């Protein structure tokens, strides 16, 4: 693909994966479509090997169905980027056995305090990294939406997309408690997965409008995948921006501020398509939350 080659030539790449590198919505050793465990581990082994061979990563080769890809990258004392793996180590969405999909109101297992999304070792690694002083911006690059998202449309009891942090509220609470600590300066969360653009306040209680904002989440739109166009912002006031358009996110990081520009392409099938900045937001250092500019 000449366009992909040009992108690699123009910029350094820091990469992670998501579910479609193996199977839609898989979690750990568990297939979302009930593939037998032994067969699924063979599939995961092949998928991880293919990913390793085609991605610019300085890591050890896979050991069968296992390979550590989470890592951190520093840019002087300006920022440190923690690149997470939310597919290999986490517990399956807790309500998958009681619902035909990963959307719904939840189930008792959703509130399990021992539930993990990152796995114990990765969670401990992240806590140790964030405790290190001397970085202006602490950035999490990760797969799925961390902000709470009520997808009921205000029609009754809240409903959630459980293949996200909404499926792991105890694990999310531990992480938000971590980034809210005084030693963690200016946390920003960068997310993909959703096929739409969002800007969200991450609050100490995800749906608690009166609880403090502890970080900002920026979700990049899909480059070319089918768009998820339903707007749930009315039921989620902590989400300050939503757009279902194709494009990407450009972040300009300075010591005093973080600027996020959402860039949108008029037609992803047209090599001569136009591109525009559809929205811009600024996060001021020392003040969690983004404001439009």
Polypeptide structure, described:
By secondary structure, this protein is of the alpha+beta class. It has 2 domains: 1-66, no CATH class; 70-243, Alkaline phosphatase D (PhoD) (Purple Acid Phosphatase, chain A, domain 2). 17% of the residues lie in helices and 25% in strands. It is built from 4 helices and 13 strands. It has helices at 2-10, 37-54, 120-130, 169-179; strands at 71-75, 79-83, 103-104, 137-142, 160-161, 187-191, 197-203, 213-219, 239-243, 247-253, 257-265, 275-284, 291-292. A 7-stranded mixed β-sheet has the order 1-2-4-6-8-7-9, with helices on one face. Strands 10-11-12-13 form a 4-stranded antiparallel β-sheet, with no helix packed on it. β10 (247-253) and β11 (257-265) form a beta hairpin. It is globular, with a radius of gyration of 19 Å.
């Amino acid at each position: 693909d000449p366009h992909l080659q040009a992108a690699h030539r123009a910029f350094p790449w820091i990469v992670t994966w998501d579910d479609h590198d193996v199977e839609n919505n898989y979690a750990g050793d568990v297939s979302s479509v009930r593939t037998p465990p032994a067969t699924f581990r063979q599939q995961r082994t092949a998928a991880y090997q293919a990913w390793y061979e085609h991605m610019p990563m300085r890591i050890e080769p896979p050991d069968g169905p296992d390979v550590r890809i989470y890592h951190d990258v520093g840019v002087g004392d300006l920022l440190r980027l923690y690149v997470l793996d939310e597919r290999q180590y986490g517990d399956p969405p807790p309500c998958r056995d009681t619902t035909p999909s990963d959307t719904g109101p939840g189930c008792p297992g959703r509130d399990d305090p021992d539930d993990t999304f990152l796995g114990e070792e990765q969670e401990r690694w992240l806590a140790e990294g964030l405790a290190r002083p001397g970085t202006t911006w602490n950035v999490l690059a990760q797969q799925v939406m961390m902000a709470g998202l009520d997808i009921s449309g205000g029609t009754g009891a809240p409903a959630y997309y459980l293949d996200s942090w909404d499926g792991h509220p105890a694990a999310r609470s531990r992480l938000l408690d971590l980034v809210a600590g005084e030693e963690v300066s200016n946390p920003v969360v960068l997310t993909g997965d959703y096929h739409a653009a969002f800007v969200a306040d991450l609050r100490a209680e995800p749906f608690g409008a009166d609880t403090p904002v502890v970080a900002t989440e920026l979700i990049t739109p899909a480059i070319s995948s089918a768009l998820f166009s339903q707007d749930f912002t009315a039921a989620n006031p902590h989400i300050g921006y939503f757009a279902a358009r194709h494009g990407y996110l450009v972040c300009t990081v300075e010591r005093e501020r973080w600027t996020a520009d959402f860039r949108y392409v008029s037609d992803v099938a047209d090599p001569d398509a136009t591109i525009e900045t559809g929205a811009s937001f600024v996060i001021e250092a020392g003040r969690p939350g983004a404001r439009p500019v």
